[in-house]
């Protein structure tokens, strides 16, 4: 039995490169300075959703930590896998 594919149109797209840099809107962030930016985005659009696009060489720890920050902010998140 096939399951329907639900639409996922995230408002927040975050990329993580192999140097553990987080990219958002052509700006580079670290785990230490991304939270205030995400808080502001959540305040502007309370129903925000996010998609994390990690580089295959990105640290799993950074992906996990970023996902945890988004969860703490109550932003539904998915992580893209290759």
Q: Which structural class do you get from the secondary structure elements? A: alpha/beta
CATH architectural type: 2-Layer Sandwich
Span of the ends, CA to CA: 24 Å
How many independent structural domains?
A: 1
Q: Which H/E pattern describes the elements?
A: EEEHEHE
Calculate Rg over CA atoms.
13 Å
The spatial strand order of the largest sheet comes to: 3-2-1-4-5
Largest sheet: 5 strands, mixed
Which strand-content bin applies to the residues?
15-25%
Descriptive account of the structure:
The protein has helices at residues 31-44, 60-72; strands at residues 12-16, 22-24, 27-29, 50-54, 77-79. The chain has 82 residues and is an alpha/beta fold. The chain has a five-stranded mixed beta sheet with strand order 3-2-1-4-5, with helices on one face. The chain starts with 11 loop residues before the first strand and ends with a strand. The relative contact order is 0.24.
Question: What labels would you give this structure?
Answer:
82 residues, alpha/beta, Nucleotidyltransferase, domain 5, five-stranded mixed beta sheet, 5 strands, 23% strand, globular
How would the blueprint of this fold be written?
Blueprint: E1 12-16, E2 22-24, E3 27-29, H1 31-44, E4 50-54, H2 60-72, E5 77-79
Parallel strand pairs: 1-4, 4-5
Antiparallel strand pairs: 1-2, 2-3
Quick overview:
This protein has helices spanning 31-44, 60-72; strands at 12-16, 22-24, 27-29, 50-54, 77-79. It is of the alpha/beta class.
């Amino acid at each position: 039995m096939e399951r329907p594919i639900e639409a996922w149109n995230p408002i927040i797209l975050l990329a993580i490169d192999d140097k553990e840099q987080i990219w958002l809107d052509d700006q580079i962030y670290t785990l230490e300075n991304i939270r205030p930016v995400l808080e502001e985005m959540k305040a502007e659009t309370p129903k925000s959703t996010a998609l994390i696009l990690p580089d295959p060489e990105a640290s799993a720890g950074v992906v996990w930590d970023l996902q945890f920050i988004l969860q703490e902010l109550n932003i539904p998140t998915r992580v893209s896998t290759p």
